[in-house]
## 1
Amino acid sequence: MTQTVSGFSKLSKSEKINWIIKHHLQDSADARTIILQYWNSNEALQNLHDEFIENTISNYYLPFAVAPNFKINNAIYTIPMAIEESSVVAAASKAAKFWLDRGGFKAEVINTSKVGQVHFNYTGSIQSLQDFFKEIKPKLISATEALTGNMIKRGGGIIDIELRDKSELLPNYYQLHATFETLDAMGANFINSCLEQFAHTLKDEATTNAYTKQNRLEVIMSILSNYVPECLVTAEVSCKVEDLKDNDGINPEDFAQKFVQAVKIAEVEPYRAVTHNKGIMNGIDAVVLATGNDFRAVEAGIHAYAAKDGRYKSLSHASVENGIFKFWIEIPLALGTVGGLTKLHPLVKVALQLLGNPTAKDLMKITAVAGLAQNFAALKSLTTTGIQQGHMKMHLMNILNQLEATSEEKQLIVAHFKTHTVTHNSVIEALKAHRTK
Ligand code: MEV
């Protein structure tokens, strides 16, 4: 399909829909119905969503669910999760319940500092640049006062700015590497505004400063980094190996050994590590999305952290020592509970309320726990029954919906599969058998 258009963003919503139906959807009345079906009848709410982004034609729903019974540092949480994958919330809830009876999760924020950089080229000597930087550093900071005032009043702001020599990697390439404390805000706008001000000051000063005015200083770009290896949170669970006993008849010692080995495999084998970490992200992304945070930023930062030692590895770790089973995770998480979508998206507000309007630090802990819980549930299934048993049970409803089963049929088939193995074919057969009865 090669139809192009100019001025599309200026069209009204209905005109945009007419255009795509005509040029890309073969004038399909069904497609129009589906697009319109997802509009919200509350006009103000619909307008709010329309204005989040450009060229909005409809809404894209994800289920918004909750996983109860999470005990974190002795407080109980019901965690909101937005995700489409059938088994994730069930798995999280199961892991929460399992650990509720065994002391719950412990979580701790190690640090919350975030990073932003001004990337620039400079043709003079490193010594002249260092002398220049030393002289202008206070100005770099004072020139941002209008931006940083409120953040400083609340206890945050710019932590430091360093000059970094990267000219061995790329000729003439240097950075202002700045660290920030943004408190309960994710801080992207704050950081980027400060960086752009640093860049202006840097450029202006360089043209008149005695150390640099003979040389060329060119700012390439100024942007925060989503790699936040210092903005770290840890979460863990532990119990006596014998207390791992569940009502599945599996020997707890064997389970613990196998579980630890499964984690070790993900520490040494990247093919496994990626899937292992994907399971962790099932929990993390779902909470990040439900609480209106930027899951792309979180994903990028976490995966970079998983590869920080030069090889992609598991984000979680497990051990059995002196009869104690321990399972833990350490991840970078730059999250906010103020600003961004948090005040704007009504469901995000509810999600945060549900968590007791957490600080960013609390949300970091809760999110890390959701990731660890998800990982625990996945590894527990993988090393015992296999993943498909639970997964297909949860997927059953999707298959029944695909087959357009009625509510009565769904009830009967779900009851049938309480004692039978779910596969796509077995569901088709069961439904067929029921319909021909
Ligand atoms: C599926 O979404 C996630 C798992 O593959 C994670 C894992 O293998 O650890 C089950």
Note: The pocket of (R)-mevalonate is lined by residues 85, 275-276, 278-279, 282, 378, 382, 387 (CB under 6 Å).
## 2
Amino acid sequence: MKDFLQLQDKHIVIMGVANDRSIAWSVAQSLHAAGAKLIFTYRQERSAKKLNKLLEKNEMDAAVIQCDVNDDESITSAFAEIKEKFTTVHGLVHSVAHAHKEDLNGDFIDTSRDGYAFAQDTSAYSLVAVAKAVRPLMAEGGSIVTMSYLGADRVLDGYNVMGVAKAALEASVRYLANDLGPDNIRINAISAGPIRTLAAKGVPSFNEILSKVEEKAPLRRNVSAEEVGDMTTGLMGALSRGVTGEVIYVDAGFNIIGIG
Ligand code: NAD
């Protein structure tokens, strides 16, 4: 038990488990090992079914609540239900992103107005909306973590509109940190290295990126979802109490390399 993190029985909302490959699922396992009480949100019924099976298989007792981050009413009713059941929330993990497939193929310059707005709404504004919804429940202070990617500040073929959404997400983390800090609520982003998940399937150059990282990253390997999960647990717990507004790379060091 990682009790030095002081997460025993803390209520933590996890948004974004689609299946057992989701980064959010590894986050859940790490937080569970640290003794946290988990509250999952899902968008689609099929994710809820998978989630319930995973919880059963892993003998984890947790609440499962519907929340579509594109829909304000859905966010309001999800957090009202969380408040009713748990009163207080100590942490929130935002592991949600989506863009239209056609906007990840071809050139960024061809992104449609609608595709640009959709990627921003789902992948960046959603953090602002859920931070606002959870704030009143974090009366004892709290920690929020979101997932970003290197495409926020570097050009990667096939990441396109999602890179621009991640740039907005990282800037939102800084502005939110400033708003939430006086309430003792911290917020940070983890910039994860490439990990084979459902969302990663949409990135056409994904296999190429994986092999480049293995070849060039200081650790000469890719990272696992478990490593991202453990860093999230670190950011949720007391050991990181002085850290907010940061983007922390869990990428085997790949981001520091210039021309390799
Ligand atoms: P994933 O497909 O397992 O998770 C994405 C989740 O977003 C899914 O659970 C999906 O249901 C959810 N989602 C999408 N639209 C939603 C909506 N409107 N409302 C609620 N939920 C919605 O893939 P993942 O790789 O685990 O992605 C999690 C996060 O990690 C994303 O922000 C992604 O950009 C980020 N990330 C992934 C990688 C990678 O290589 N896999 C690297 C860096 C960052």
Note: The chain has one domain: 11-252.
